[in-house]
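ugh ok fine here u go
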Amino acid sequence: MDSNDKILEQLRDDYAVLKEKLSDQEIINDRLLNATFKAKVKDIHSVGWISSACAVFVIVSAPFAFHYNPVMEMSWAFIISTEILMLTALFFNWFFHSRVNAPTPGDDLLAFATSVKLLRKRYRYWMRIGFCLLAVWFIWIAVELSFRFETRELLLTLIPVVIGGLIGALAGLRLDRKVISRCDEIIKEIER
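structure:
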């Protein structure tokens, strides 16, 4: 009996040591996971800051670039529409990004995953809406300028506008893909 008690006591001690090591391992894994999520959320928010800075730049420069510029001289209706479009983009950018915060230890990861999934979904919808509005915006520029210029002058005026628009659209797509990619990485990590 004595040897069985010693074996049982030894097993209990070994179990306690293993349980403590496993607990330490879970804490380390939680810390690593939270640090990873924090870095990815920071990366996502950096895209939001870049987008916001671009929107503010357009808001400030639109009157000078499109109305007071002697080549363009766009209507005030166009300028105001551009300002409203950028203010709307700024609002939704803030709204989307303010709903996602990196989890802290002990936070519910499912709630965090839900907020990331919602951000991803909203980004997809906003990108579709944004490109439709951008197409309308370019058509508006072309129509307004077509009333003022002959064909050759119109083409020479529109070429820089189209090139700038394509560069902006490509930059926007790249930023969008970055956000979607980070969201997918977070969701995949949580669902594992």
